[in-house]
Amino acid sequence: MLIAGFPAGAFQTNCYVVAPAAGEECVIVDPGQDATDGVDELLREHRLKPVAVLLTHGHLDHVWSVAPVCGARDVPAWIHPDDRHLLSDPAAGWSDTSASLFGGITLSEPDDVRELSDGAVLPLAGLEFVVDHTPGHTRGSVSFRLPGDEIMFSGDLLFAGSIGRSDLPGGDYPTILRSLATKCLPLPDDTVVLPGHGPQTTIGRERATNPYLKEAAPHAGPTRGI
């Protein structure tokens, strides 16, 4: 499998391309601020043809370049319905103070937007991406797993040594703890976590050292009502 990525823009949001191998179809995950040149470079370098863009959530730093990336390659974008409104109203995902920093920024939906659901399996580019709805950072946050390869694209749910913030609109701390408990803790220790920011890690490392996963452990159980 080929997974390549780079931190995009001022937010240093990790954007990834995922393919079975060089020279094949691929999926792009979270094209953030000023990500188009970096995406184009990876596609040329590895001779890849994108078939879809997957979005872990709707915050501006993860979706900034989704419309131009999708438009240039005529591919759909996938996002959870609870975050779809953020594609065209990015300020709704930030506090009033933060939103003022983005004055004048206008975004629009790609021409083809498709909605994700918890537990869905997306057969894309010769791979099968399992969708886990993981609210708490935003209402529509998701992670994507490649179970056979024990890989998780965690977005802003789980970082190396930390977790995503829950104090922005749509965020909720008890909810993100439940998402960690029900979607991360059950995974094998050797699951590689590719987060939305910062270096990669593993579930085993985070289980042993991440204080938030230790706090989440008592919340493990049925997910009904999340």
Explain what this protein looks like in three dimensions.
This protein is of the alpha/beta class and 226 residues long. The protein has one domain: Metallo-beta-lactamase, Chain A. 23% of the residues lie in helices and 27% in strands. The protein is built from 7 helices and 14 strands. The chain has helices at residues 36-46, 60-63, 66-73, 96-99, 173-184, 203-209, 211-216; strands at 2-8, 13-19, 25-29, 49-54, 77-79, 113-115, 121-124, 127-133, 142-146, 151-155, 158-159, 162-163, 192-195, 201-202. A 6-stranded mixed beta sheet has the order 1-2-3-4-5-6, covered by helices on one side. It has a 6-stranded mixed beta sheet with strand order 7-8-9-10-13-14. Helix 1 links the parallel strand 3 (25-29) and strand 4. The protein is globular, with a radius of gyration of 16 Å. It starts with a strand and ends in a 10-residue tail after the last helix. The model is unreliable at 221-226 (pLDDT under 50).
List keywords for this structure.
7 helices; disordered C terminus; RibonucZ/Hydroxyglut_hydro; alpha/beta; metal ion binding; MBL fold metallo-hydrolase; globular; 226 residues; metal-binding; Metallo-beta-lactamase, Chain A
- Computed CA radius of gyration, to the nearest angstrom: 16 Å
Distance between the termini: 33 Å
- CATH fold name: Metallo-beta-lactamase, Chain A
The largest sheet has its strands arranged as: 1-2-3-4-5-6
- Note the main sheet: 6 strands, mixed
Gross geometry: globular
The CATH H-level homologous superfamily: Ribonuclease Z/Hydroxyacylglutathione hydrolase-like
- Helical content class: 10-25%
Number of strands: 14
Overall pLDDT: 92
Order of helices and strands: EEEHEHHEHEEEEEEEHEEHH
Q: Which runs of at least 5 residues are low in confidence (pLDDT < 50)?
A: 221-226
